[in-house]
Amino acid sequence: MTDRKSLHPATRLVHGGTLRTPFGETSEALFLTQGFIYDTAEAAEARFKGDDPGFIYARFSNPTVRMFEERMALLEGAEDARATASGMAAVTAAMMGQVKAGDHVVAAKALFGSCRYIVEDLLPRFGVDCTLVDGADLDQWRAALRPNTVTVFLESPTNPTLEIYDIAAVAEIAHAGGATLVIDNVFATPMLQSPLELGADCVIYSATKHIDGQGRCLGGVILASKAFIDKNVHNLLRQTGPSMSPFNAWVLLKGLETLGVRVAAQTAAAARVADALAELPGVTKVLYPGRPDHPQYALARRQMKGGSTLVAFEVAGGKAGAFRFANALEVIGISNNLGDAKSLVTHPATTTHQRLSQEVREGLGISEGMLRLSVGLEDVEDLIDDLRRGAAAASGGAPLARAAE
Q1: What pLDDT, in 10s, does the model give residues 177-194?
Q2: What is the pLDDT of residues 298-349, one digit of tens each?
Q3: Which of 22-31, 116-125, 154-163, 197-206 has the lowest mean pLDDT?
């Protein structure tokens, strides 16, 4: 039989991890069960001791969930994977599973608000120190490492400013100091960036985003070597229970079948949208890794296969201008989600990063006039026309409240 690892990504997305029942179903089976029956008491004992690799309890694993994990591992090029109830459950487990009181973590300052909460607020409650650095400054990574540094954490591209960090260089620095590197790869997706190939030890996704891609369910996944999963993740998830539901795993398996074609179309559209935004009156800055004017354009070309499905841009007039822009849109929805088939816009300063102080936001480049656009699967000309409406409203002083539909 063909080695599944030799197949191209598009084929892995359709066939990876498939486990068929004797009925020979085409679509993956949905196993809605909490528990499993053992033929004998001895068989149950063997399962719990780990001598028999079968399923025990849905909090530990489930055939549908395992299919999702194996397909993701095959796609990412990881030895193993563990699914979680949400992306933040994946972040929390990957970080907390590695540390104990007295340890130290280094993370980039530019993180999604909830991720920054984990490293800046939650971990210190349990005696784990944290140092935040400018992720683009390799000297800061080097200087921040201590003898007790266990892991370093970053996202690239960052949310929402789409800053690009040198994953290979940070991995080398982390490993030289005896630490692991954990990457949140949500904005790049597994189609556009492969952190494990660049030296990362662990990759995290909010499967809620592009992997589902159609606004249906929550999910997360942790991908790494089998040794990393066994040591840091497996028992923590088993004992604490942030389990992915079998139904959500089934939905995400369906999402994976179209992930490649969706991300390719969205990335191509995002590149055109970024160029169009740069020409609109009142748009003062466009940040897109695929544009030559992006500060890390050369690095993005080196470590990514495309410029992402997201675009960040600033409009004149601060918060009021940004709100006028967003409220005038008729095709693009206002939402804090991303990676959806529907194009979505959000104002990070008042949503995803609102818990940060204005001073911290400004230090990260998140201005009051910044909007983050997740490009969907609509016709790109309709999206550009919609953005023109937004720009006209922002510069013309249209009402701040969105018109009733």
Answers
A1: 999 999 999 999 999 999
A2: 999 999 999 999 999 999 999 999 999 999 999 999 999 999 999 999 999 9
A3: 22-31
368 Cβ contact partners less than 8 Å away, ≥ 6 residues apart:
318, 319, 322, 349
Q: What is the pLDDT of residues 365-393, one digit of tens each?
A: 999 999 999 999 999 999 999 999 999 99
Residue 374 lies in a domain: yes
Q: SS in 3 state form for the chain?
A: CCCHHHCCHHHHHHHCCCCCCCCCCCCCCCCCCCECCCCCHHHHHHHHHCCCCCCCECCCCCHHHHHHHHHHHHHHCCCEEEEECCHHHHHHHHHHCCCCCCCEEEEECCCCHHHHHHHHHHHHHCCCEEEEECCCCHHHHHHHCCCCEEEEEEECCCCCCCCCCCHHHHHHHHHHCCCEEEEECCCCHHHHCCCCCCCCCEEEEECCCCCCCCCCCCCEEEEECHHHHHHHHHHHHHHHCCCCCHHHHHHHHHHHHHHHHHHHHHHHHHHHHHHHHHCCCCEEEEECCCCCCCCCHHHHHHHCCCCCCEEEEEECCHHHHHHHHHHCCCCCEECCCCCCCCCEEECHHHCCCCCCCHHHHHHCCCCCCEEEEECCCCCHHHHHHHHHHHHHHHHHCCCCCCCCC
Domain that holds residue 347: 260-395
Span 60-73, average pLDDT: 96
**Count of Cβ atoms closer than 10 Å to residue 35 Cβ:** 10
Answer yes or no: is 404 within a domain: no
| CATH number for the domain harbouring residue 138 | 3.40.640.10
pTM summary value? 0.94
